[in-house]
Amino acid sequence: MINLIAFDLYGTLMTIRTDESLNSSWQTLAAFMGYYGAKYNADELKKRYYELESLEKEKIKYANDLGEINVGNIYTELYKKKQVNANANQIEITAKVFRAASTQSISHLYNGVENMLKTLKNNGIKIALLSNAQYLYTKPELAQTGIDKLFDKIFISLSLIHISEPTRLDVI
What's the rounded mean pLDDT across residues 111-133? Predict the structure, then answer.
């Protein structure tokens, strides 16, 4: 008998299309961060972001070859560079602003996903989410679709535990 089914998120249960290369995304992020006193122009912000991303990747790679960064650290450093001490809520909102600005197609569930998850739960099967994603981006997208409450366990591996999707289900 099956006791647990684990799902990936993007491309399996839901879809979203983002493009972080758009200048308009960086302009929006620069304007938003400027409201808090971290004044950047779009080009400077984009360049600094990618420099910090490289540094974060190097730190994680040194610690664990399977590692991945947490974008929250990048946003925190971007604020610090402009002498702004951003709190956790501000970092979360900043991530949401950039994700919204770079989103080309709003996240939506594939047809039948919600019913399938409810049916599995109603039949006593535990369901887990294993995703290589950034928690600061994925958390609100899960809430937006309403399926966040259906999972027994959620593992957003890249940004929270700094490794790729867990390959052993005995962690659940």
Answer: 92
- Tell me the helices (H) and strands (E) count for the chain, helix number first: 7, 5
Secondary structure letter of residue 155 according to DSSP: E
Q: pTM for the complete prediction?
A: 0.78
Q: Which two tokens stand for residue 141?
A: 């997208």
| Strand 103-109, strand 14-18: pairing | antiparallel
Q: Are 18 and 102 in contact (CB under 8 A)?
A: yes
| Identity at 85, one-letter amino acid code | N
C-alpha–C-alpha distance, residues 69 and 49, integer Å: 13
Over residues 49-82, the pLDDT tens digits come to: 999 999 988 877 655 555 567 899 999 999 999 9
Q: Phi and psi of 4, rounded to 5°?
A: -145, 140
